[in-house]
């Protein structure tokens, strides 16, 4: 280990949350030589959650971390996408996903969430740093340290706490409690940052030779008034699918609903006869399910992302509807930005002050927050676009957006993807070393109205990928 890594090893990061974001942070810190301890309230790689979509800029980071090779062999890159109206008529056959893979030299893929977790977990070298069934329930700070208390009563000390514990983040709530002592209004904004207007059933079903709903590498989208559905065959023998429904009322955290299996069954009885693609319905997919859950689709960006030695990341700080699948990928952008800043700081200041850490956090937020606000807004537009929320969106979906060529959609999406960061302290993959336009997203988008970019992204990526 180099002397600089030895210095960085004097600094300890405490991570709350061991899902895709927490494990990504663990791998990033391990590769950088930064000491950490990760606390997950449940088991690592549980069989919960249905699927995850990975975009090219996230795949680049996974390549740097050495995890992509394990994932690549399990998936079928998505290539085709057909769009259907409420009568079952196909009004657009798109090959934009194939164009994106050609332009960026990486695919957009879809896989079981548990398999992605297994791949990340397997690449952590020192698994003694990973603590399962260990939920952070409290923290306290001093000028030099932060100490967390776990649900079993044990305490762990470090120099920084990262809340990577999802939309119902305990760390975010605890941070709001600290802020509430001096600013009640800000604390309230933090606690109520997310709202929900749509609900989603997401599931995995069998897609075998006896009953194949759609061919491998294909995506089907169907648009109904007030609801929509999508199915994607991203893994051989499986189909990942989603039913998006507008809720009867808008709710806010902490009062967003929690749904049971009975709630999901009730929705299937209501919408089950709706076609998703040629010859099969939501009920058909439900009857062949392997796993399924119903959740609210929270949306929002937290107003303040850090306080003293505590910082938030991923769904704990920005939550997008899942239709375009940009939320999880956005979290990996956050991993890159935050880790890059910490690596640079610790090389110069092995035991940084709160002020030095806050400077890194400011840079992280300055890079991540505008991107998060764009993704959250765009994702919400896509959700409402696919559910035909207004007559304008219905008209645009069927008659305007299909006129935009797949080639232009792919180029505009590529400009967005290329704007994502990578781990600057690790070598770039060979694919990127001589890549043109790696930094070109601002140049490409300059002068193009945001409405045009949003419209092309609507069908460039659409409701294919889950966060």
Architecture overview:
Helix content is 40%, strand content 25%. It is globular, with a radius of gyration of 22 Å. It has helices at residues 3-8, 20-32, 56-65, 68-72, 96-104, 113-122, 170-180, 184-191, 261-271, 282-287, 327-348, 354-386, 391-400, 406-418, 430-433, 441-445, 450-460; strands at residues 12-16, 35-39, 51-54, 80-84, 90-94, 109-112, 130-131, 136-141, 146-150, 155-158, 160-163, 195-206, 218-224, 227-235, 238-252, 275-277, 280-281, 289-301, 306-307, 310-312, 318-319. It contains 17 helices and 21 strands. Strand 4 (80-84) and strand 5 form a beta hairpin. The strands form five sheets. It has an eight-stranded mixed β-sheet with strand order 5-4-13-14-15-12-18-21. The chain has a six-stranded mixed β-sheet with strand order 7-2-1-11-20-19, sandwiched between helices. A three-stranded antiparallel β-sheet has the order 8-9-10, with helices on one face. It is of the alpha+beta class and 467 residues long. It has one domain (3-193, 300-460): FAD/NAD(P)-binding domain (3-Layer(bba) Sandwich).
Specify the biggest β-sheet.
Answer: 8 strands, mixed
Helix content: 40-55%
Q: Report the structural category.
A: alpha+beta
- Rg, alpha carbons: 22 Å
Overall form: globular
Give the strand tally. 21
Write the CATH architecture name.
Answer: 3-Layer(bba) Sandwich
- The CATH fourth-level homologous superfamily: FAD/NAD(P)-binding domain
CATH topology: FAD/NAD(P)-binding domain
Total domain count: 1
The residue ranges in which pLDDT falls below 50 over 5 or more consecutive positions are: 440-467
Strand content: 25-35%
How many distinct helices? Answer: 17
Task: Walk across the major sheet and give the strand order.
Answer: 5-4-13-14-15-12-18-21
Distance between the termini: 36 Å
CATH class: Alpha Beta
Calculate the mean pLDDT score and round it. Answer: 89
């Amino acid at each position: 280990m180099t002397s600089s890594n030895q210095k960085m090893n004097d600094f300890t990061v405490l991570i709350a949350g061991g899902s895709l974001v927490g494990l990504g942070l663990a791998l990033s810190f391990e590769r950088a030589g930064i000491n950490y301890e990760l606390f997950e309230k449940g088991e690592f790689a549980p069989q919960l959650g249905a699927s995850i979509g990975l975009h090219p800029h996230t795949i680049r980071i996974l390549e740097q971390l050495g995890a992509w090779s394990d994932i690549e062999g399990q998936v079928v890159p998505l290539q085709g996408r057909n769009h259907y109206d409420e009568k079952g008529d196909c009004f657009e056959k798109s090959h934009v996903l194939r164009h994106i893979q050609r332009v960026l030299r990486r695919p957009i893929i879809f896989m079981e969430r548990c398999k992605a977790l297994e791949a990340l977990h397997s690449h952590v070298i020192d698994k003694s740093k990973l603590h399962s069934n260990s939920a952070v329930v409290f923290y306290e700070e001093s000028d030099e340290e932060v100490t967390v208390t776990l649900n079993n009563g044990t305490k762990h000390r470090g120099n920084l706490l990262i809340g990577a514990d999802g939309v119902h983040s305990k760390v975010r709530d605890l941070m709001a409690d600290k802020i509430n002592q001096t600013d009640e209004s800000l604390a309230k904004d933090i606690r109520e940052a997310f709202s929900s207007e749509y609900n989603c059933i997401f599931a995995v079903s069998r897609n075998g030779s006896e009953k194949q709903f759609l061919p491998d590498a294909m995506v089907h989208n169907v648009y109904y008034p007030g609801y929509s559905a999508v199915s994607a065959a991203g893994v051989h023998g499986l189909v990942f699918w989603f039913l998006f429904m507008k809720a009867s009322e808008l709710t806010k955290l902490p009062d967003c609903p929690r749904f049971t299996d009975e709630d999901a069954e009730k929705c299937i009885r209501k919408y089950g006869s709706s076609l998703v693609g040629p010859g099969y319905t939501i009920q058909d997919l439900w009857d062949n399910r392997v796993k399924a859950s119903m959740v609210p689709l929270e949306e929002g960006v937290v107003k303040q992302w850090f306080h003293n030695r505590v910082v938030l990341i991923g769904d704990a700080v920005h939550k997008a509807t899942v239709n375009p699948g940009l939320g999880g990928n956005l979290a990996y952008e956050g991993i890159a930005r935050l880790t890059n800043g910490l690596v640079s700081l610790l090389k110069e200041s092995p035991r940084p002050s709160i002020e030095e850490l806050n400077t890194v956090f400011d840079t992280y937020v300055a890079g991540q927050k505008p991107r998060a606000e764009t993704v959250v807004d765009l994702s919400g537009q896509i959700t409402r676009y696919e559910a035909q929320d207004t007559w304008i969106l219905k008209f645009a979906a069927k008659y305007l957006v299909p006129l935009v060529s797949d080639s232009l959609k792919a180029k505009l999406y590529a400009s967005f993807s290329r704007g994502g960061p990578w781990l600057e302290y690790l070598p770039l993959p060979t694919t990127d070393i001589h890549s043109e336009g790696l930094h070109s997203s601002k140049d490409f988008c300059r002068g193009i109205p945001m409405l045009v970019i949003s419209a092309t992204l609507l069908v460039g990526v659409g409701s294919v990928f889950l966060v």
